[in-house]
Amino acid sequence: MDQFDVALLVSADSDLVGPVRAVRRLFSHKRVLVAFPPDRSSKVLKQAANAQIYIGRDVLAKSTLPAVVVKANGFRLHRPAEWS
Fold it and tell me: Which domains does the chain have, with CATH numbers?
């Protein structure tokens, strides 16, 4: 569909190798980068992508929203307990 220049895939699921290969085959000028979550990776997904990075637990912790987010209208959004 030629709708992007660089795709960032956050996953270690090797089931996504086929789609990554298809994008690279159909659009050789596109780049697909894979960001592996902490303690996860996939050798075949790494090989299929143009590049890869590993998301550290420290980076993930810094990216977590607070336990409660209050919207401008006062509505409170609560982070699920299992995300803490």
Answer: 6-83 (3.40.50.1010)
Whether residue 63 contacts residue 46, with contact meaning beta carbons closer than 8 Å, is answered with no
The answer to whether the CB of 61 falls within 8 A of the CB of 34 is: no
Asked if residue 61 lies in contact with residue 38, where contact means CB atoms within 8 angstroms, the answer is no
What's the one-letter identity of residue 15? D
pTM of the model: 0.75
Query: What are the tens digits of pLDDT across the range 12-50?
Result: 999 999 999 999 999 999 999 999 999 999 999 999 999
Per-residue three-class SS string for 14-72: HHHHHHHHHHHHHCCCCEEEEEECCCCCCHHHHHHCCEEEECCHHHHHHCCCCCEEECC
Q: What is the pLDDT of residues 6-18, one digit of tens each?
A: 999 999 999 999 9
Q: How many CB atoms lie within 10 A of CB 6?
A: 10
